[in-house]
Amino acid sequence: MLVKIEESWFSKLKVEFEKPYFKSLVAFVKEEYTAQRCFPPGNQIFAAFDNTPFDQVKVVILGQDPYHGPNQANGLCFSVNDGVLKPPSLKNIFREIQEDLKTPIPQSGNLERWAQQGVFLLNATLTVRAHQAGSHQNKGWEQFTDKVIELISKEKEGVVFLLWGGYAKRKIKLIDTEKHLVLTSGHPSPLSANRGFWFGNKHFSRANEYFENRGIKTIKW
């Protein structure tokens, strides 16, 4: 089955693409994109993979669903296209970076610049129907992205996994915590952040400190 995805990921995941669940998932997604307005655009469904080849993955950030409003989702979790207003969670991520690293908040909410430095911005579910959060959950995406997390954990070493919120934290069971750094906190959404579960986690400086100690280039957050 032909899946348009970056070459190094294709070679690692081609067995997965041939499994019955994934073929059913492809059929579902094609039908949804034909009959409904869905996000992200079809050519950006695998943007996280296309922007961050397997060998370049240094950090994994896990989201749950793509944004479901017009022109927001670009295939990278928490990221929006240039010129689009920053959603509340992303505003809180930038606020934490500002406080943690003493750097200015960027004008654009497009996180491609992170992805190109090795930050793998993976949503557990890669597609969504417009204005219907969670509409493509439990169709097979989670089985696929769990396999991706397991693959990174198994075949790489020294990756920083940032697990924000209850959903992401449950993925720790897929990660070998002996050879990777796993940092957890509340979700950056206002509901969690405003109750004191997000701000002050210092995940961005802690990730860079980990890389510095290993002689690895840090991330320009």
Record the strand order, biggest sheet: 3-2-5-6
Q: What is the gyration radius calculated from CA atoms? A: 17 Å
What would you call the quaternary organization? single chain
Cα-to-Cα separation, first versus last residue: 37 Å
Structural class given helices, strands, pairing? Answer: alpha/beta
The tally of beta strands, per DSSP, is 6
Shape field: globular
Please tell me the overall pLDDT: 96
Binned, the helix content reads 25-40%
Order of helices and strands: HHEHEHHEEHEHEHH
Strand % is: 5-15%
- Runs in which pLDDT lies below 50 for 5 or more consecutive residues are none
Largest sheet: 4 strands, parallel
Helix count, DSSP H or I runs of 4 or more residues: 9
Please specify the SSE layout and strand pairing.
Elements: H1 7-17, H2 20-35, E1 38-39, H3 47-51, E2 59-63, H4 88-101, H5 112-115, E3 119-123, E4 128-129, H6 141-155, E5 160-164, H7 165-169, E6 181-185, H8 190-193, H9 203-213
